[in-house]
Amino acid sequence: MTENNGKVWLITGCSSGFGRCLTNAALKKGDRVIATARQPEQLQHFTQEYPDTVKTISLDVTDKEQVKTAVEFAKETFGRIDVLVNNAGYALVAALEETSEEQMRQNFETNFFGAVNTIQAVLPILREQKAGVIVNMSAIAGFVNKVGFSIYGATKFAIEGVSEALRGEVGPLGIKVIIVEPGPFRTDFINRSLVKVEPQNQDYAKTCGKFISVLENMEGKQPGDPDLAAEVIIQAVEAKKPPLRLVLGKYAYKTFRQKIKSLTMELDGWEETAANTDFES
Ligand code: NAP
User: Fold this and answer.
1) Cβ–Cβ under 8 Å, residues 116 and 89
2) To 10 degrees, what angle do helices 101-108 and 150-170 make?
3) What distance in Å separates the CA atoms of residue 39 and residue 59, rounded to the nearest whole number?
4) How many angstroms is it from 235 CA to the middle of ligand 1?
5) How far apart are CA 155 and CA 142, in angstroms?
6) Cβ-Cβ contacts under 8 Å for 232 (sequence gap 6 or more)
């Protein structure tokens, strides 16, 4: 076998959607992938097509032991990790008042602590290599949140906060950090990665209840193509200077720009008043 000089990827949540498309795109270009899933038997099609360049292992990101084992397996198998993709995640749509503490904590366990634990497990390897890229899958809701997504958006805002600081901590060590910000993409997300809590109180019918219907009606019609997203993520990973925030899709771009505009207007409107809170030195 000839030596493979391509990148080694460790990707979470490869059974469907972005994780599956990214695994496929990386393998197609000749890179090697440690593809992980809660049920790795769902990844057999990859091992059949790419027996030398993909290895699979069971990984539920909420299980710290499994995270450690998967990272060790990656290092033992391919000798290095060049790109970690924290993709595994799901959404919770519910009115905040009607969200149980357990539902909140579970969403944070997967979307936030799952990603952070994996980053901590991989960092010693990336530091030793003095190179690597950490890709954190956020969402448009991690920058511009919507009614019904209070907790889901909060998990993504949290990972964005970590990513911003982490970039400064590991950048000088040769490690890059990218936050991916997709708008609606045609994956299994609405179909099976969305925990829906129908409003109990009619006061939330026109906000959170309506948002559930909007999402359900969008199923199968989302504008974003996850295979094209995978290509752009690879392009960003390979860029000399990747963006901190990789915004994907026209809807996401429009929504980002609207928020930036309204933030600027708000800052301008209050600057003079609020700036007067400094001590006079
Ligand atoms: P998807 O097709 O439903 O994929 C979600 C993946 O996450 C599945 O592979 C699922 O695995 C995995 N997962 C969930 N909990 C897990 C856990 N505890 N441990 C390991 N894997 C777990 O949806 P997707 O759109 O590709 O979602 C991927 C990421 O993109 C998520 O972080 C999501 O928040 C983000 N995102 C999606 C959209 C969109 O419109 N599609 C927009 C913005 C952000 P199982 O097969 O085991 O359930």
Assistant:
1) no
2) 30
3) 8
4) 21
5) 8
6) 246, 248
Render pLDDT for 132-165 as a digit per residue (tens, 0 to 9).
999 999 999 999 999 999 999 999 999 999 999 9
Whose alpha carbon is nearest atom 26 of ligand 1? 17
Kindly state the average pLDDT of the residues 206-233.
98
Q: List residues with catalytic annotation.
A: 138, 152, 156
Query: Ligand 1 pocket check: which of 64, 90, 103 to mutate, most ligand atoms within 8 Å of Cβ?
Result: 90
Confirm if 253 and 184 have CB atoms less than 8 A apart.
no
pLDDT of residue 2: 54
The CA–CA distances, whole Å, from 114 to 67, 161, 174, 178, 254 equal 8, 15, 23, 17, 30
pTM value > 0.85? yes
3-state secondary structure string across 82-130: CEEEECCCCEEECCHHHCCHHHHHHHHHHHHHHHHHHHHHHHHHHHHHC
DSSP-assigned states of every residue in 188-243? SHHHHSEEE---SSGGGIIIIIHHHHHHHHHTTT-SB-HHHHHHHHHHHHHSSS--
Residue 1 has pLDDT above 60, yes or no: no
Residue 33's DSSP bridge partners are 9, 54
Any residues with CB less than 8 A from the CB of 255 and at least 6 apart, and which? 140, 144, 183
The closest alpha carbon to 69, from 108, 26, 117, belongs to 117
* 22 pLDDT tier (thresholds 50, 70, 90): very high
Mapped onto helix, strand or coil, the DSSP state of residue 31 is: coil
Residue 208's Cβ-count burial label (10 Å; 0-12, 13-18, 19+) is buried
Ligand 1 pocket residues where CB is under 6 Å: 12-13, 15-19, 37-39, 59-62, 87-91, 110, 114, 137, 139, 182, 184-185, 187-189, 192-193, 222
